[in-house]
Each structure stands twice: as structure tokens, then as C-alpha cells.
Design goal:
single chain, alpha+beta, 3 domains, seven-stranded mixed beta sheet, four-stranded antiparallel beta sheet, 10 helices, globular, binds flavin-adenine dinucleotide
């Protein structure tokens, strides 16, 4: 902490709106929280600092959700607003199949059309007031763990929003941190990545991007190392590549995040330069850069329950389970260029680039884990009276986080936070005391698959 400080003058700000529930952050996590609470009758304010909803799925260009089925393909395990959103995208061909178990590619989405769908879902809900291009700034506390109002900032200046219950869906946990919740920093957070969209992305048979990068690495030292993946985008001629990575980056530090944005864009430029040198007769276009680098992991909020990898991989059933998932424990290392997957089919694989460098089993031969569960307790900050969290700041250890961090899982967390916030508001209870069996019942009534 710098010794160089200044004291700001006290300020009086207008109270712009009073609501039952205020949601900070408009990714699908935040949108689904807002929709759930609004459909139960709450007056909801939803705040998003960028110009659009969708978070990493739109701003970060990551248009990929994962299977809604258990890994034995016997049972659908994810429904709710994830399913509803996909049904809307399906009408215009803006997503690939989700009604049956999916292959390696998962469910691909067109991020731009997702933006339009989320606009419609939110603006057609009369109980939601949406503020885009509006940033959360600080929490105003009425007592320990109890938020009276938040201060937000837009082009007109600073103003307050009062609410009974608040949901932090900011990814970074900005609201929880400002409200004095205990935040946990991890030693090796998963590295951030800027995705990019390219035109002209087609290659001769047998072409390997990894081998090409190895060939040009000396000539183009900004070329990224490590794992990459990409996908053709539905309803588009473009290809999305998640091919960059910035190692050992604390994404909560302004100097570090600036370094990450610039470094990852240099890596994208190097990929483009490489392709143009390798195929001088072809036309490759850089069509879209993300509005913000994709952050895989930042701070976690210490909650009344920490989901552990041991519990997750044992398939523990929780009495307050609000979500189910099958995405593997997927850890991008930040010290070397490898990524490891513990798949629910029992295999454990390590990759470098697109190459698998080791395969073992973590489950005995013939055994699989059909799905795991996510409990509500990891969304309830310890000591919180009227604040819940939903999103990548949830309380999970390294392995469990590696699995639950994907969007189909966090979407379910958003829905659960919306329902639990509504219960806390209705009953005038602290968030730790809501009836979690009722949360599950209400989620199910609203279309979620609760097992
Ligand atoms: C490169 C990359 C590839 C990935 N690939 C996949 C994949 O293929 N499939 C998958 O499911 N998951 C993938 N993930 C993981 C997944 O995308 C993220 O874990 C998930 O999107 C995080 O969701 P979130 O809601 O917590 O945060 P975010 O999506 O980051 O949303 C947070 C929202 O809060 C807003 N916000 C932040 N601060 C403020 C503020 N002060 N005021 C107002 N609003 C604020 C942000 O603008 C943003 O809209 C990937 C992640 C990365 C980085």
C-alpha cells in the first residue's frame, strides 16, 4: 500500500433509485440472478459497467457453453435460464445443438446474437431497471456485513442505489470487497487470455498451428506458448481463437492488467504476422479484439462453505445443491505452458500446445463420475447480512474452481443467488439464514433441474 495518500472531501450524492435487489455485473450470471428475482416479484436494479450484457461470453468473445447432460448421457442435468437462452438463440441458428449431449466442441454460440437475446430478456422484464455504462464504485455500510446502499458512477456523476439485498456478479468481487468481506488470493491464479476473431481461417490439410508457431518462434518472439483452442462461430464466417496467455498476472492489479491487455494483443499480432508469412497468397483478417481480456481467476470470497476438489470429484451430493456440472477440472498453469484436465470419465490429461503429453486415470478403470454438484453455501459470504456472490469469485479451492468456473455452472449460481436474495428480502432474514430447501424448490419451479 502506498504511503502517498490524500483525504477526499465528504460528498452528498442523489439516491437515483430504491429497489428490493441490486445486482452488480451483467454477465449471464448477473442477468440470470436479476431475472430470477424479478420473476418472483422483486424490483431489481442491474448495473453493468460496459455497453452490453453477457460478460466474458460477449465482451470476451468466448461463445462456448458446455453440455447440459451428465457424462453417461442418461440424464439432462442443467436447464433453467441456460436452456431458455439457448432456445432463443436456436431460433436464429445462433447456437449449435444443446438438446442432446454434445461433442468436444460443446455448445457454440454467436456472442453478438447472445448480446441481442440478453437485451430482449432483460428489457422485457418489467421488474428490472437496467443501467449500462454504469460502474459500481463503493458500498455504503449500515453495519458489519450489511449494505445500506451502493454508490455507482455514470456519465452524469456519482449516485446511490438503495436496496434490501445485493448480489455481487462482477467476477472480480468488487462489491464484496468494498463491503469488507474476506477475500482470498490464490498463489497461482489461472492466466488470463485475450480471444480474437479472424477471417480467412482455413488451412491446407495437415497444417498444425502449434508446429507453425514453433517454426516462427525465434523470428516472432511474441508468439504465445501453451494450450490454445478455437471454434467456428455459428451464423458467421469468422473463427474465434483463444490462443494467448499472460503468465503470472495478478488481474486485480492495474499495472498487471494493463500489461496483460497489451501483451496478449502483441501475441495476437504475432499470430497474424506468422500466418501472413507462412501463407503469403492467402488473406487473413483480424476482425474483432475483445473489449476486455478474459480473466480466468481473481480473488475468491470466503463463504460459509468452500467447495473442495475432493468433494467435487467424489460426486458429493449437497442438501443445498443449486447446480450440477460435468466440466472437467481444467487448470491452466501460470508457471509453465501446460494445462491439465481431470475428466469425469476418469482420465487425467496434460497438454502442451495442442499436444497431449501425458494420460493417466484418476478413477479406477471402468468407473466414471456422471456429474458433480455446486452448493449454495459457497455463494454466501462469511459474515454477510444482505450480500450474496455469484460468479468466478465464489468460494472453491483450486481443483473445484477449475471445474465450476465455466459458464453453464456459473449461470446456475446466478439463478440461485437471485432466488436466495428474494427469500432474504421477503423474510427480512440474513442471507445465511434463508431456507435453502425452499431455494431449491423455487429454482425447480422456475425451470431449473435440481437433483
Ligand atoms: C479465455 C477464456 C476462455 C474461457 N473459455 C470458456 C469456455 O469455453 N466455456 C465456458 O463456459 N467458460 C469459459 N471460460 C470461463 C468463463 O468464461 C468465466 O469463468 C465466466 O464467464 C465468469 O463469469 P462471471 O459472471 O463471474 O464474470 P464475467 O463474465 O467477467 O462478468 C462480470 C461482469 O461484471 C461487470 N463488472 C465488473 N466490474 C463491474 C463494476 N465495477 N460495475 C459494474 N459492472 C461490473 C463486467 O463488465 C462483466 O460484464 C473461459 C474464460 C476465459 C478467460
Amino acid at each position: 500500500m502506498s504511503e502517498n495518500t490524500m483525504t477526499l472531501p465528504p460528498e452528498t450524492v442523489p439516491v437515483k433509485i430504491e429497489a428490493d435487489i441490486c445486482v452488480v455485473g451483467g454477465s449471464c450470471t448477473g442477468v440470470f440472478a436479476a431475472l430470477r428475482a424479478a420473476r418472483l416479484g422483486a424490483k431489481v436494479v442491474l448495473l453493468e459497467k460496459s455497453n452490453r450484457l453477457g460478460g466474458v461470453a460477449t465482451l470476451g468473445l468466448v461463445g462456448m457453453w458446455h453440455s447440459l447432460f451428465d457424462i453417461t448421457h442418461q440424464q439432462q442435468i442443467i436447464g433453467g435460464l441456460t436452456f431458455e437462452t439457448l432456445e432463443r438463440l436456436e431460433k436464429t441458428g445462433a447456437c449449435t445443438t444443446f438438446r442432446e449431449p454434445t461433442d468436444y466442441y460443446g455448445i457454440r454460440l454467436n456472442s453478438e446474437e447472445l448480446t441481442l437475446v440478453l437485451d430482449t430478456m432483460v428489457t422485457s422484464e418489467k421488474n428490472i431497471t437496467l443501467y449500462l455504462q454504469t460502474s459500481f464504485s463503493q458500498a455504503v455500510l449500515a453495519g458489519p456485513g450489511k449494505i445500506e446502499a451502493i454508490v455507482a458512477e455514470d456519465k452524469s456523476g456519482r449516485f446511490a442505489i438503495r436496496a434490501s439485498v445485493f448480489i455481487d456478479a462482477s467476477g472480480d468481487g468488487v462489491l464484496a470487497r468494498s463491503a469488507g468481506m474476506t477475500m482470498r488470493r490464490v498463489d497461482h491464479p489461472q492466466p488470463p487470455t485475450s480471444c480474437a476473431r479472424f477471417s480467412g481461417w482455413s488451412f491446407p490439410e495437415g497444417f498444425s498451428l502449434r508446429k507453425c508457431m514453433d517454426k516462427y518462434r525465434e523470428e516472432l518472439p511474441d508468439l504465445p506458448c501453451g494450450y490454445y483452442w478455437g471454434m467456428p462461430i455459428p451464423n458467421s464466417q469468422l473463427f474465434m481463437l483463444a490462443g494467448t496467455r499472460v503468465m503470472q498476472c495478478d488481474c486485480n492489479d492495474p499495472d498487471e492488467i494493463t500489461r496483460a491487455e497489451i501483451t496478449s494483443r502483441r501475441q495476437i499480432k504475432a499470430i497474424l504476422d506468422m500466418l501472413r508469412r507462412e501463407f503469403p497468397d492467402r488473406k487473413f483478417g483480424l476482425e474483432t479484439l475483445p473489449s476486455a481480456i478474459g480473466i480466468r481467476e481473481g480473488l475468491h470470497v470466503e463463504s460459509i462453505g468452500t467447495l473442495t476438489g475432493e468433494e467435487l470429484l467424489a460426486g458429493r451430493r449437497f442438501p443445498d445443491a443449486i447446480g450440477n456440472g460435468t466440466y472437467p477440472v481444467d487448470i491452466h498453469n501460470d508457471t509453465d505452458a501446460t494445462i491439465s484436465f481431470k475428466n469425469l470419465n476418469g482420465t487425467m490429461r496434460v497438454y502442451r500446445g495442442d499436444q497431449c503429453i501425458s494420460t493417466e486415470r484418476w478413477l479406477p478403470e471402468g468407473q466414471v463420475l456422471p456429474y458433480y454438484q455446486i452448493p449454495l453455501s459457497c455463494l454466501i459470504p462469511r459474515g454477510a447480512v444482505n450480500v450474496l456472490v455469484a460468479g468466478r469469485m465464489l468460494d472453491a479451492d483450486r481443483d473445484a474452481f477449475g471445474a465450476v468456473r465455466v459458464m453453464v455452472n456459473l449461470n446456475q449460481c446466478g439463478e440461485a443467488a437471485g432466488v436466495a436474495a428474494w427469500q432474504a428480502m421477503r423474510d427480512g432474514k440474513g442471507v445465511a439464514n434463508v431456507d435453502r430447501a425452499e431455494t431449491r424448490r423455487l429454482l425447480k419451479t422456475g425451470g431449473a433441474i435440481i437433483l
